[in-house]
């Protein structure tokens, strides 16, 4: 069983070494698809023997699908630059590699990491994502704004692994807010492409609702003040999505400060009509 590790990057010289250092022992091939780094990301990737490929960014869905297509092995492992495999997860996957797979794909637990924490809190409800899989059974969807897999085998079997990916999504509150801003641009573009229609009232309740979901129901309160900050940020991201959607339609309908009833942020992606 050979495994191709693939990731997408832009200016990830700080986090990429940790990810590659942890995952390189199980990878027979490493693919890094970059959308225009101006730092030392390329040097870091090539230091670990990665094949470094430039590909212009359109959306996360398009980018990861392209990166997957660059892999030469049937089995692939997708990791982001901010995702570091725990030693326990590495050992778990190495056993699978040695003994052979017992299903078509494996879900990995992605545990949030914050300053002051050496490992994810197992009692928090973390994401479970199919990240190690056979391309004969499933592929990246390639849809605008989606980075999930779609099944191409009629009845694929998946299994959840016990150990964690340590998800270092947090670099600073400033970087987190910038990331949320870019992500919600893509979310609005995707909603417009799919002809969705959101009520403006969703702006009103989404922040409180999502804060309650993450902080209480998904138990991020176990991370203390970092859990509070994370939950507020998630609620704020939902608010940005619905407020930008409202903004788009208001400017498109009424115009604003010479905009002539269009919104240049989204027009290039969704067309005019």
TrEMBL record:
Provenance organism: Dethiosulfovibrio peptidovorans DSM 11002
Official protein name in the record: Glycosyl transferase family 2
Keyword DNA damage: no
GO MF entries: transferase activity
Domain Glycosyltransferase 2-like: 4-123
Pfam families xrefs: Glycos_transf_2
Transmembrane intervals: 220-240
Keywords of this entry: Membrane, Transferase, Transmembrane, Transmembrane helix
SUPFAM superfamilies found in the cross-reference section: Nucleotide-diphospho-sugar transferases
């Amino acid at each position: 069983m050979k495994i191709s590790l693939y990731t997408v990057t832009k200016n990830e010289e700080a986090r990429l070494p940790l990810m590659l250092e942890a995952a390189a022992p199980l990878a027979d091939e490493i693919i890094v698809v970059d959308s225009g780094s101006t730092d030392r990301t390329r040097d870091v990737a090539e230091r670990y023997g990665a094949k470094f490929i430039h590909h212009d960014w359109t959306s996360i869905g398009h980018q990861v699908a392209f990166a997957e297509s660059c892999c030469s092995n049937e089995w692939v492992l997708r990791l982001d630059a901010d995702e570091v495999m725990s030693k326990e997860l590495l050992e778990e996957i190495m056993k699978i590699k040695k003994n052979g797979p017992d299903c078509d794909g494996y879900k990995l637990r992605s545990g949030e990491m914050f300053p002051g924490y050496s490992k994810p809190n197992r009692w928090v409800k973390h994401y479970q994502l199919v990240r190690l899989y056979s391309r004969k059974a499933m592929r990246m969807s390639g849809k605008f704004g989606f980075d999930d897999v779609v099944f191409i085998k009629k009845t694929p079997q998946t299994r959840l692994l016990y150990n964690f990916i340590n998800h270092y999504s947090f670099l600073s509150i400033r970087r987190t807010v910038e990331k949320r801003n870019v992500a919600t641009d893509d979310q609005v573009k995707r909603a417009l492409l799919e002809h969705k229609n959101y009520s403006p009232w969703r702006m009103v309740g989404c922040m409180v609702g999502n804060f309650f979901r993450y902080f209480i129901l998904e138990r991020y309160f176990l991370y203390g003040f970092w859990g509070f900050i994370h939950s507020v940020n998630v609620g704020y991201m939902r608010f940005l999505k619905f407020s930008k959607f409202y903004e788009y339609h208001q400017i498109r309908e009424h115009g604003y400060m010479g905009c002539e009833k269009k919104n240049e942020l989204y027009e290039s992606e969704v067309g005019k009509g």
